[in-house]
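REQUEST ID: PR-0412
SUBMITTED BY: lab tech R.K.
PRIORITY: routine
TASK: structure prediction, single protein chain
INPUT:
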Amino acid sequence: MATLPFDELEVYQAAERLTDEVWDIVRTWDNFAKDTVGKQLVRAADSIGANIAEGCGRQSYKDNQRFVKIARGSLNETRHWLRRAYRRKLLTPEQVAALKPVLDSLPKRLNAYLRSIGDPSRASRGEPAEG
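STATUS: complete
OUTPUT:
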């Protein structure tokens, strides 16, 4: 399975940007908010990149695909916690606007990466051939 190291994949780098932005926001919250919504949000966001990385370490395309699907689930969970944080007035409209570009691009990137897994000519470049 000839692919780029996980940290060179564009999809992983986008997941990293999201989780770093989430971390920077959550660390400013009060203890109650951090302990409830914050921990769940950070764990969900961290899980996106962690699953991409773990999938890259597997020795089969099927395993890698399975972990990318788990990463998609973690992205949905992250979106859930961001919605809760916004409704509970923990996020400002400006913070939401800053997160929106990566939140909008990650599902497309994850799906494109998932499609590329199994085709060594596409996966080895670390860039999806489509979308």
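NOTES: The radius of gyration is 15 Å.
REVIEWED BY: pending
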